[in-house]
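To: structure subgroup
Subject: Chain for Friday's discussion

All,

I'm putting the inputs and outputs inline so they're searchable in the archive.
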Amino acid sequence: MSCYSSAQTQPFKGYKIEGDMLVFVFDKRDYEEATIASKRVDVEDLDIKNVVVSGEFNNWAKDKWGMIKIDENIYELRKKLSDFTDEFSWEFKFVINNQYWAEPSRRDKNAVRAFENGHALQSYNLKMYMAYPDKNGNVTFTLNGYDDAQKVILSGSFNKWNEQLFSMTKTKNGWALTLKIRPGVYQYKFIVDGNWIEDPTNLRKTLNEFNGFNSIIDVKGRINFILDGFLEAKKVILAGSFNNWSESECQMTRTKTGWANTLMLSGGKHHYKFIVDGEWILDPSNPVKEYDGKGNINSVSMVK
């Protein structure tokens, strides 16, 4: 049974983010037309044999990223977020039967005009962002006051500084918007009736190219560190690059099977070790290790 109750259930068309996975979603009910050699056809008239994801991240290939059929309407393809970087412009489309381009509507929130050799086309691509509005998201942005404002927009590096995409909701104290956003350090500002302002309650900021300031937010991810065994140890400490290799700050808790500690860490790479009754050891259950440039080998945890 499909988990989709209707078409276009995601905040943006064509994809969703689940943990560290980017899930491309094609729902044929979301598309009226497809094109082939500038000729337009009705999607409902096509006998769909396969659907492919095509974008700048795979050189707009029509036959590489095949999707899996979920039901009569839905196709999906799952990719790790770590496979994508900000070097991509993140525009994409779906290709039906390796030849028909499914055409988004300009009314779709994440639709952008398609260009070829610098010339605007009479069609649109879909664009991905690493954040999107979600009432159950992990970060809530608030702006107190501005009761007389007509519109407040949240714009930042997480949505490529889009000036329309993230409209904030009026509350009794001001404005708010909750996002689902992957761990990382982001810059942002509010646009109040066209005027760009910093977050007045956030002291963290950085100089921008316009000789003004952008506010900064560090979105952290929850990481569980587990050391199995060593049940006879009296004390186990978690030390790493995230706490300046402190030998006392992060004491681990004894469990039935070993030791555990949970930390909220910034996005990126973190080196760590366990200190078992004064003896420094690597994480025996983590095969990912790196030299630190000082002759030491450390275990590595990636927060994505």
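Points worth raising on Friday:
The first strand starts at residue 15 and ends at 18.
Residues 168 and 247 are 44 Å apart (CA to CA).

D.
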